[in-house]
Amino acid sequence: MRVKVKLLSVFAKHAREDADGLTAVPEGATVRDLAENLGLPLDLIRIITINGHQVYLDERLAEGDCVYLYPPALGGG
Amino acid sequence: MREIEPEMEMAEWADPRMAARYRRNLGTLNLEGQGRLLASHTLVVGLGGLGGHVVEQLARSGVGQITGVDPDVFDETNLNRQLLATTVSLRRRKVEVAQERVNLLNPACAFTTIVGRHRDVPETLWATVDIAFDCLDSVADRLDLAGVCARTSRVLVHGAVAGWYGQVAVVWPRQDVLAALYPQTGLGWEQDLGAPPFTVALTASLMVAQGIKLLIGAPVPCDRRVEFLDLWEGRWLTTTL
Question: B111 forms bridges with which residues in the sheet?
């Protein structure tokens, strides 16, 4: 199945999208599986939303989900 | 707090110039709240992008005493976003420029300078601080400041930026929110997303709004929440850590 993944801030460089801008994940995959497949540092993931609702790493993904992953910000401007 | 019509409150100020200065705060704040600000002391640690805007807004709001802490001088790379960085303030100490700015804005606001870091703030000064603002740019320093605030039972208003993204948290003593926000390993990770003026100013404004609420005794949640600002997509997310 494929999901839309929005990687924010420093996570953006981990994006792995197909020509449709979607990311393939195995059936039954969780957010954790997706994050590990993309090489995201799990200890930096601070907010996860699926279709606008906050979830956690063990949430299962479904076809067409839109997933946002946020890391913390560091700078003092 | 008392609910009094602003026009009625004006008459209570002994000095009409003070009444005019804070006239447009009233309605948002009431007289008691304005009085609490005037009697309060805030510590602003870091006078760069966030800190410059925080100091500006605290002084204009009418906070009575601000202590600014920063070891650095302004340089050209500060000019895109740091309110106090101008072509005439380059190479000057940030605390001194901030002090001059506050004196220009509001002579009723006393500005104390500390050229150094938060560990250089004397204990006698800490004792009079109501709340502190974390405007630092190093995670290690942020965590250390949060530790000092926890030990001294001071509420810390945290803010940070990364490109189009910002975050703000009110850190109550011993809640250890920053330790949950930042990983204990890999603190050396780089975050080269830039620091644009709009993200900095918005994040600083949200920090000040939270700080003002704390200072006037308005309710501020103590549930370990962190606000994440996404200016790229125009989203504002709240989570608890």
Answer: B66
Q: Any idea what the CATH number is for the domain that residue B114 is in?
A: 3.40.50.720
CA dihedral in degrees (A30, A32, A35, A40; nearest 10)? 180
Interface residues on A facing B, Cβ-Cβ cutoff 8 A: 6, 8-10, 41, 43-44, 46-47, 49, 54, 70-77
Quick check: is B44 in a domain?
yes
Q: Which residues of B touch A70 (CB under 8 A)?
A: 165, 228, 230, 237
Query: Is A10 part of a structural domain of the chain?
Result: yes
Give how many domains chain B has, as a whole number. 1
pTM of the complete model: 0.91
Q: Please state the domain count of chain A.
A: 1
Is B82 part of the contact surface with chain A (CB cutoff 8 Å)?
A: yes
Q: Where are the beta strands (DSSP E) in chain B?
A: 41-45, 65-69, 110-114, 131-134, 155-162, 165-171, 225-230, 235-240
Nearby residues of B225 by Cβ (< 8 Å), 6 or more positions away = B169, B170, B238, B239, B240, B241
Q: Look at residue B12 in the predicted model and tell me its pLDDT.
A: 56
Does the residue A77 lie in any domain? Answer: no
Question: B193 is in which domain, residue-wise?
Answer: 39-240
pLDDT number for residue B190 = 53
